[in-house]
Structure formats: C-alpha cells, structure tokens
Design a protein that fits this description.
5-stranded mixed β-sheet, 5 strands, alpha+beta, about 15% helix, about 190 residues, 4 helices
Length: about 190
C-alpha cells in the first residue's frame, strides 16, 4: 500500500503509528512523547523498507528489506495531540513540503505472531498485552486477522525525498533493519 497523507485532519482515519527509532520502548523519546498517550504497543515490521543511520536517529526509506519497530495505537481522546507531537518531532510540515525531514505516509506493516520477539529485545510485547486494539475500527479487519500477521495500515514516517536521495548515495545502512540502543544520541523517529 502506498497512500499519501490525506491531511490527518478531521474525518481522517485514526490509523496506528509505526515507529522504529527513538520512539521505541527504552529509547529517549518513548517516555517523552508516548507515555500516557498510547492504548497499545506491539512489535511490527515494515516490509519493503530499509533503515539508515542518521545524526542521532534513523531514517527509513522504501527498499528491498525490512524495518523492525512497534505499532502504536493512540489512547482514547489524544489522537490529534499525538499526531501533532509526532509531526513536530519528525519535522513533518505537510505532504511534500520542501522543508520536511520526514514524510508521513500510510503504509502496510506486519504484526508477527505473539511471542515472536524475544523478551527484552526491541519490539517484545509488553506483559499487559495492550496490543489487542491495534487497528482502526474503520478498517474492517478482524482481531484474528491482526493477530495472524495480516497487514495493518499505519502512519509511517519515511525520510523525505532529499534525505532519501542523500542516503541512497552515501548513507550507512543498518544491516538487519533494527535500531538498537547505544548506536546514537537522542533525536527523532
């Protein structure tokens, strides 16, 4: 799926968010931006994407690989606030804006079977199991489909066009598509 940002304004579907960098549990921006604002967090994978080193945070771009991260659902009543906070963090000013650092786009992500991530590994499910509410109600997907690894539509912040071009010509690819602690200083995504 390659749908562009429909604006995220009133009436837009409240899609979950796929995060893969400093917003992961244990990373510097997780508590800062997500604490108390999510109803569920579950390991997920973005197929057809590559992960690159950035200046303290990673960039995902379209490509022949997989990026590992988490699928997040906003807590009731805070979707608009969370969307605005993440857009600000990711320096997203609107679809195709020339000063975007990232583009917010709708993409499909996959949910591995429960327990597929090792305990303590980035992306391991939280013990409380809040990930049962990980797809928007409007999508028509059943809970069983979400649990079986069927694709889920989510907002994903991908590197903007100019950044992508630079990464493809001289960026440092992160081999298994996993952002890990100790690789960088605090930053975005």
């Amino acid at each position: 799926m390659t749908t562009s940002d429909p604006g995220g304004g009133p009436g837009a579907a409240e899609l979950p968010f796929f995060v893969y960098g400093t917003l992961l549990p244990g990373e510097p921006n997780h508590d800062l931006f997500l604490r108390g604002r999510t109803a569920g967090e579950r390991p997920a994978v973005r197929p057809r994407a590559l992960l690159y080193e950035g200046p303290g945070y990673p960039y995902a771009i379209e490509g022949h690989g997989r990026v590992h991260g988490m699928l997040l659902v906003a807590a009731p009543g805070v979707y608009g606030e969370l969307l605005g906070l993440l857009d600000h963090l990711e320096e997203y000013l609107g679809p195709g804006h020339p000063r975007n650092l990232y583009e917010r786009v709708v993409r499909e992500v996959e949910l591995p079977a429960r327990g597929a991530a090792e305990p303590g590994e980035p992306g391991a499910p939280r013990e409380s199991g809040p990930g049962e509410h990980l797809a928007p109600r409007e999508s028509g997907e059943s809970g069983a489909a979400r649990k079986s690894g069927a694709p889920v539509r989510a907002w994903v912040y991908l590197a903007a066009t100019a950044v992508t071009r630079s990464l493809r010509t001289g960026g440092v690819l992160i081999p298994e598509g996993r952002w890990t602690t100790g690789r960088r200083a605090p930053g975005g995504s």
